[in-house]
Amino acid sequence: MTALPATALPPAVRPAPPGALPIGLARIGLELRLYLRDPGQVVFSFAYPVIMLLIFGSVFGGQTTGPDVRFEDYFLAGIAATGIMLTSFQAVGIAIAEERERGDLVRLQVLGTPPTSYVIGKAGQVVLTTAAQLALLLTVAAVAYDVPLPADAERWATFGWVAVLGILSGTVLGIAVSPFVGSARAASAGITGFSVVLQFFSGVFFVFSELPSWMQQVAAVFPLKWLTQGMRSVFLPDRAAAGEVAGSWEHGTTALVLGAWVIIGVVVCVRTFRWRRGDG
Amino acid sequence: MTTTQQAPAPGATAAERSPAVRVRGLTKRYGQRTVVDGIDLEVRRGEVFALLGPNGAGKTTTVEILEGLRRRDGGEVLVLGEDPATAGRSWRDRIGVVGQATGAGDALTVRETLDHYAVYHAEAEGTDELIAAVGLTEAAGVRSARLSGGQRRRLEVALSMQGRPELLFLDEPTTGLDPVARRQFWTVLERLRAGGTTILLTTHYLDEAAHLADRVGVIDAGRLVDVAPPEEMGGELRARSTVRWREGDGFRTVVTTEPSAVLRDLLAARPLAELPDLTVTRPGLEEVYLQLVGAVPASGTATDADGGTR
User: Fold this and answer.
1) Which of A33, A148, A226, B201 has its CA 20 to 30 A from that of B295?
2) Nearest-CA distance from A190 to chain B in Å?
3) pTM
4) Which homologous superfamily does the CATH classification assign to the domain defined by B14-232?
């Protein structure tokens, strides 16, 4: 051990602590590193949609549904929506439970970390991993399964706002559920299980309009159904809208429901998020 | 460890001359159970203060209230002149914390961890200096998950001193460390103290308190039962010496606060005889501590107790 440099810094010469933004930006880098070094996250949230696409492509390849819509095209929409949910809601919910258990959150509290910095870190990481995931997914879909990617700017714009609302709602809801899911083990099982059930209900594994109506109604409460439907409006031809339950893409309702979940998530986060359980 | 007190710099403000920690009548309850029961405590600037007590005595709860991590149910608390319950980020940057439950992303290496958390401080100590200071140079590229218990504690200490705090809280920092690691740890703390850092640590190791602390506070069942420099701990209890010698088949013992007088009388009564196995002992720190926390009954005040053949 060498001589210790650490001497107490007197208050008179101590500058103000850095703002929320520089800490938040540094946290994006940290969150990305932690995400990519966690094999569970890389397989079950990042790579999962591509694996799903490969399986679906092998099973249903060449079949059609509704008005001449190929299964590959139909399911790509659901898989893209699922990917967004996994990299946002599922990844964030599970990661926070682990951080809480490991004591990372107590450290942030001890350091006086602004909660805004924490949210910036999470959101930044989710945006970047989701973007990378969607790029990989669409590339595989286009190259391996000849799924036609949209050619016009309008469809890409739809893709953009649907994805952004999906990422936002997934991230804030992931943070919002974290105080209620218990241990990291329970969080991993509970959140993953919930995600899978929601995929069944939301038309990811089956054609949505062929599901029992009670399932459709339950699914309509949650974001994934709307996310999936929004993605179908991007990847399927316009005539396919006739195959939807409402007979149209319902862009207005989609934006409304996803937006409402963002607001609900933010309110729950602000009211219930604590660095640690119990007595604050 | 030097015994000179850190004198406040000339021109220091009233706040800088005030004690680092000032606590009056602190209470904390969990449901019906009172875990901190009216503690008064003062930690001076520049000193090392050890809170010593058995598990469950209320040490961690007290320290967590001082760190601003827990709410209190009653009493006044000032830490570096501010109430931890309402103090802001600038105050947090002036304190350092080594808790029992703080973690830092297992998948990051020691160097990555320190580089990252440097961003949170107004002014951060260099990563290389910190790594060298806590003796983690060889483990700098190792991920936290693969560090030994002692290395992990040292990383915690490096993180706690990264922002050059005026006051450092260490909650049972050496629990679970082997003797060599503990000694290394003590050296780090001694150097920090020499750099003007006030240190409040909790421990249930007596030798640690005796070695490191300028003053020791003994806490038991949520009450502070004694505060004194380690060599004076126990006051009255400590002053009682035991005079013991062999007489016939057994031992005779006399517990007294005036061993010299007892010895004078004893020897005067037997001017020519040898007193076999004559000893005069004062209670050690451990004995005093165990009496203070009620683990063993205090030795009697009788001046002529027959100790029998113990």
Assistant:
1) B201
2) 23
3) 0.84
4) P-loop containing nucleotide triphosphate hydrolases (3.40.50.300)
